[in-house]
Amino acid sequence: MAIETHHAQGVATLTLCAPESLNALTIADLLALRQLLRTLQDDDAVRCIVLTGAGTRSFCTGADLKRTLPPAEPFARGTLRGRGADAERDGYTRLLDLSDLELWKPMIAAINGYCLGGGLELAMQCDLRVASERASFGLPEVKVASVPAAGGVQQLLRAIPSAHAMKLALTGDRIDATAALRIGLVSDLFTSENLLPEVHAIAERIAANGPLAVQAVKRLALETAHLAPRDFIVQANLQWGLLRDSRDRIEGRRAFADKRPPRYIGV
What we know:
This protein is of the alpha/beta class. The protein contains 11 helices and 10 strands.
């Protein structure tokens, strides 16, 4: 699979390009995706990342089952290696977990078609999920006597009410885009033709904000949701203090006073 990249207006769009396999991911694809995301996190010209799949049939259906066969060595040995070393011996499940990459730039999943299994696990690690009317969602692992290996059950419980999450996880059933919008799995729903233009419009609005502030908001959301109010307020105040004297925050206040658009530079 090729992963196409496009940069415009501070937004980097990554497109998974294997429509013949419903954009399923091989080990090589996962390694390439992880490296691209690392690069984009450190690219000051990029302020928001959009992840999508080629074609109208699928966003991503997880791992390519024909090209991710079970490793020959015991599972325990692989888990005690680093992710890269495990992948060299055909261990792939941990590659779907992006938490070790420390991606603080906002990510939007633009979902057109199937978003199943590891594809949904990937989408749920994005900060926003926006879908077309063609989209459908599910964690079908129990139907093949397995479980979501990259935190899918836990991510689903954080994304939507537990009754809906457990119904999806235990039945392995799929839901359509309208149901996903109703239960809050996606934030917006558009026609297939309008999906990417509308997602890019959202991404550009995010990219127009103070880039350090946007990343600080994401960091607070990910790192403090489990804390008690006393503790998460301390962390919020700390992030506020880190930004207090930044040039962008000063520019934002000046632009407000001058009634003009701010010109943020990320410092």
